[in-house]
Amino acid sequence: MKIKILTIFPEMFAPVLNASILGRAQDKGLIAFEVIDIRPFSQRKHKNTDDDPFGGGAGMVMMAQPVVDAMRYAMGEGFSGRRIYLSPRGQTQTQRKAEELAREEELILLCGHYEGLDQRAIDLCVDEELSVGDYVLTGGELAAMVVADAVARLIPGVLGCEESAQTESFSSGLLEYPQYTRPRVFEGLEVPAVLLEGNHALIEDWRFEQSLRITLARRPELVQGLEMSKRQRRIYDRVLREWTQQKGDV
């Protein structure tokens, strides 16, 4: 997979994209990142990429020309992927969206800055707008890193253990269950006995129940429409009764 990132601050990306799992994935040829500086595409004398907004208002707006020309350069010939503008007004990034994007052959992530981007650039060269949360950042660079990381780790071979991506938070529809490692007792706190007994069916039941309890406590809306086996349904019914009772007692 190829992920190209358009930005006016390309120096921000190397420490993230070239380190740890993403760096190893590039070394293995599983993914290719290309960071493209928008500034050289500006036709202004001083290569600036912003100007005052028509109609007045605070701040500056990114100009359409350098962004559109940079996008066309990034697309090259025969582009067949998705062009995404990182924006607070976009659809919220989710695990499902990451899975959807991971199926693309190529992504171009456009990082906005200042007070936003000239709408004409969005109309001409953006397929969708994407947000990483209901808050505003100083620019799209950090958001682009989040999206790139969330997508890259879903590409086969990147994590090394495919099960990791399948059992973590949101992949099953629930938040992830608690994890433990050695020692068995730490500062008086013991690992749950069920994890030490080797009964994989009971371990799966315990993990599902813990995920369910955590999700009900923190993100109850995620439980709606959850697909479950008959065994999981019995656990769900019991936990839901207990959870409802506890809420009524408060």
What's the short version?
This protein has helices at 14-17, 20-27, 64-75, 95-101, 119-125, 141-152, 162-167, 200-218, 230-249; strands spanning 2-7, 32-37, 50-51, 61-62, 82-92, 106-111, 128-131, 185-186, 189-190. By secondary structure, it is an alpha/beta fold.
Rounded Rg: 23 Å
Shape: elongated
Question: Runs with pLDDT <50, length 5+?
Answer: none
- Secondary-structure element string: EHHEEEHEHEHEHHEEHH
The fraction of residues assigned to DSSP E strands is 15-25%
Count every helix, treating DSSP H or I runs of 4 or more residues as helices.
9
Structural class: alpha/beta
User: Strands across the major sheet, in which order?
Assistant: 2-1-6-5-7
Strand count, sense and barrel status of the largest sheet are:
5 strands, parallel
Summarize model confidence as the mean pLDDT: 93
Residue share in helix: 25-40%
